[in-house]
Amino acid sequence: MTGAIVAPIFQTSTYVQPDVAVPKQGYDYARVKNPTVEALERKVAALEDGTHGIAFSSGLAAIEAVVKRLSAGDHVVCEENTYGGVTRMYTRVLAKLGLEFSFVDTRDPQRIRDAMRPSTRLVHVETPTNPMMRICDIRAAADIAHEGDALLMVDSTFASPCNQRPLALGADVSMHSSTKYLNGHSDIIGGVLVVNDDDLAEEIFFVRKSSGAVPGPMDAWLCLRGTETLHLRMERHNENGLAVAQFLEAHSAIERVLYPGLESHPQHELAALQMSGFSGMVALDLGDPARARALATETRVFQLAESLGGVQSLISVPALQTHASVPQKLRETMGVTEGLVRLSVGIEDIEDLTQDLDQALA
């Protein structure tokens, strides 16, 4: 309207209507539409080469909206090594409403196929996974889901749209916790879905309107600002992530490093096929809970905090933090032990990062 180079923050809850039940340009209440939120949705849809972006108040709210399209008795196949909050929401909240969930290792497409039922309506995968860096073959998962008349939703948060575009590989829904790389500055909570199908988008918009999990305009504006530098930040995250992974792999104190960009990663070839970069997420196994805790508390550039994807480097112990709600037996089966440390490698100077890890390991 004004030519402003930056999208304005429409900090309003309601809109004046020129006549009864005749909203101007469709704007009647901000839970339904907000111009700042719509600007973010258009931007992320473009980044994903998608048609519709749908923003939410959190990544969990975005996932929940997709599942809320389902009915009691419907079945969901989910990656077992997904974010701990998803496992908690599925098993302790949504399962009470009559939905059924199966958790499988989606690295093997056959396990997805074996878990499918006539009642399966959604396959939910995360690639790379949190925190074990598992890679799912998105094309294979899409084929299996569609053969069973189900949708495929891909949580692509660890990759970002710069490194991976699930819709181009056959997924029906690409999901991001916009708290992470999309925003990039650790100052909002948000989520976003991108879809191509018009009817599916309409259903999800209806669920959001009806359940109310909308982002505030200020959060949407901050995330919109973050997307302007996404491509620059991801270049540095990719570069630093690989350098840190290589440094740790060569370090005698580390038992194992998990990073899709390393040739030692068991799914490196698949990762290289469907990703253009490998981000800044690195997991390392010290084989001992005390050593893991010591590393997490002795770093100075890497700061001890949950979350990821910001410009600052963070360190955490997933078994005690982000995945503490996952049953212990399942955690240990997947390798999420108390000796495992997760790094979110930021954009700081690489020598500062490696020196920090070196002094903490010593």
Please explain how this structure is put together:
The termini are far apart. Strands 1-7-6-5-4-2-3 form a seven-stranded mixed beta sheet, sandwiched between helices. Strands 8-9-12-11-10 form a five-stranded mixed beta sheet. Helix content is 37%, strand content 15%. It folds into two domains: 35-228, Aspartate Aminotransferase, domain 2; 230-361, Aspartate Aminotransferase, domain 1 (Alpha-Beta Complex). The chain is built from 13 helices and twelve strands. It has helices at 35-47, 59-67, 84-92, 109-115, 138-147, 160-163, 198-211, 217-228, 230-249, 268-274, 289-298, 328-334, 350-361; strands spanning 52-56, 75-79, 100-104, 120-126, 151-155, 173-176, 191-195, 256-258, 281-285, 303-304, 314-316, 340-344. The model has no long low-confidence stretch (mean pLDDT 97).
Assess the beta-strand content as a share of residues.
5-15%
Q: What is the gyration radius calculated from CA atoms?
A: 21 Å
Mean pLDDT: 97
Domain module count = 2
Total of helices: 13
DSSP E strands, number:
12
Instruction: Write the CATH fold name of the largest domain.
Output: Aspartate Aminotransferase, domain 2
Structural class: alpha/beta
Sketch the major β-sheet.
7 strands, mixed
Q: Which regions contain 5 or more consecutive residues with pLDDT less than 50?
A: none
Secondary-structure element order, N to C: HEHEHEHEHEHEEHHHEHEHEEHEH
| CATH second-level architecture of the largest domain | 3-Layer(aba) Sandwich
